[in-house]
């Protein structure tokens, strides 16, 4: 690679990082906020107004994932067929309209139906966004690009939890209860940004008006060469064989552990904070609870950024994924024995940092051996299994809590799933079925994702 080409490469990747990633990250931010809005609404008036018991609220939260799972793979295949720009914009406007309807939900049956339809509407967005960004940069740059994108998830809680609290405090606005104002406030941006996405996004570097001809040529050439090399070495990997591919299912199991930890943390952190009052005699208002909920996620965003920066520099290695799984698995049960609110939040912060440090690096692995429609199906399948973790984390944790009377056993189960992710990642690497990264400065255009393991 000559100096001119190196300059063109840096310029092209920088433009993708500045012009494309923040917008897709904003879409993800709104997506995650709309998905989790029910967790803010429930304890702040919705459960009382709709006469919901704990089991009904839990089912309403979980039924989202059933609708999501049913349409996940078909939606991502449709994205591959119709193009990311159109399909991601369609998904966003669809879920925004459904989210808006929560403002006027009148009973538990309507809540169940809307949560199910919201899952159907959102299906395909996250794996579609991952696939979309992966199609824009060669493998050796993906950990950096996906890390910038993934920053939106912890920042959703950092910004979203206090924002939800502020919206809920606007009780009486438009004659609505505070929790209804919150649903209204988080739904409108989805519709607006979804419409803008139709015009703003481009399906490929060749169609991006903000790239120079040299940058388009380099990106298109590097991606095409990488695609051909991957296809040549993985001719057997098609949409049909994805579902029988051992690596895909192993990665799905690894992802299950991370997402089980992520949603157990997300669902029960407000419960843990609420429990401080009984344990330590502390009292917080709605906004204060939102701010405390946000605390672990700001360091998590910092950890995500710098861990992925190191992965970009070295190339994604097994320990970039396995080590956070190990630390997270060991730390989450310790939160139960911390002894004070500050210590509990500190330990939970370590867990959140571990989960978010691993996730963007994890998503560089499937695209090492999957391309085209097979990548769309494989990524969607892995994410579907992850959403099974989202459904089961709340149910299993709550069931074990009721059975045992406390959160000790449930949190050890969470830790166990994350430790299993660590073990499986190491086993997958040692089997030679995923590659170790190469330095970002490597001249091979195929990059880290297509480097045979020694």
From TrEMBL:
Cellular location(s): Cell membrane
Segments passing through the bilayer: 50-71, 87-106, 112-136, 148-169, 181-201, 248-274, 286-307, 319-337, 343-363, 375-396, 408-428
A Gene Ontology term for the protein's cellular component: plasma membrane
UniProtKB keywords: Membrane, Transmembrane, Transmembrane helix, Transport
Gene Ontology MF, one: transmembrane transporter activity
Entry keyword annotation includes Repeat: no
Membrane listed as a keyword: yes
Highest taxon listed in the record's lineage: Bacteria
Record's bilayer topology term: Multi-pass membrane protein
SUPFAM superfamilies xref list: MFS general substrate transporter (SSF103473)
Domain Major facilitator superfamily (MFS) profile: 20-433
Alphabetized InterPro entries for the sequence: MFS, MFS_dom, MFS_trans_sf
Function as written in the Swiss-Prot or TrEMBL entry: Component of the tartrate utilization system and may allow entry of tartrate and tartrate dehydrogenase.
PANTHER family: PERMEASE-RELATED (PTHR43791), TRANSPORTER, PUTATIVE (AFU_ORTHOLOGUE AFUA_6G08340)-RELATED (PTHR43791:SF36)
Protein name, entry field: Putative tartrate transporter
